[in-house]
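Practice problem 4.
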């Protein structure tokens, strides 16, 4: 299913294949030879999403851009089932395994492997050929790749990256942070009320 969102319609190369149950919404460009499988969602929430040629987005994966964080996937990228990429840049020939999470402002270099259920935190920069092991977390610039049992070290690095400030423009110490965050984000997402089918 394709949707016009905020006046922009998806642009899909005629050689790309999009499953009938995938959702493509807004300012999305899908290159030649791409395969978008069942249940995948590619949505441009005010910023563009681009997929270069021969990229595969598997079942129930999510690719999302925002007004401040476009999403770009290079050529020959494989996005595994239930993986998500939010407002990040992924270079050519990258493997994002099942369940991986890549957050806003992250930059992943060529030929990186982000293995099953691994996380690349916001504003994290991975140089080419980096491997993030199964379930591990990459955080920072330059990136540190840490096992999940090192939570205190991860949090110390992650806190400095300021997720609520960077993504939502809100101070982490705001007393009613989640009220303001959900009100602000909900208002932005409500713009989908005016979407229309484009296919």
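Answer key:
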């Amino acid at each position: 299913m394709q949707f016009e969102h905020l006046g922009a319609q998806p642009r899909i190369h005629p050689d790309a294949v999009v499953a009938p149950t995938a959702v493509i919404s807004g300012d999305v460009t899908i290159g030649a030879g791409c395969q978008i499988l069942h249940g995948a969602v590619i949505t441009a929430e005010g910023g563009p999403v681009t997929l270069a040629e021969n990229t595969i987005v598997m079942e129930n994966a999510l690719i999302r851009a925002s007004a401040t964080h476009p999403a770009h996937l290079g050529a020959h990228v494989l996005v595994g089932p239930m993986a998500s990429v939010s407002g990040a840049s992924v270079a050519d020939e990258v493997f994002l395994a099942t369940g991986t999470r890549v957050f806003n402002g992250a930059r992943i270099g060529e030929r990186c492997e982000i293995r099953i259920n691994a996380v690349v935190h916001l504003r994290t920069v991975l140089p080419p050929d980096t491997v993030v092991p199964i379930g591990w977390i990459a955080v920072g610039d330059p990136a540190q790749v840490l096992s999940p049992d090192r939570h205190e070290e991860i949090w110390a690095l992650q806190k400095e990256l300021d997720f609520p400030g960077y993504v939502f423009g809100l101070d982490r110490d705001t007393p009613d942070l989640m009220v303001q965050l959900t009100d602000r984000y909900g208002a932005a997402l409500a713009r989908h009320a005016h979407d229309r089918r484009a296919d």
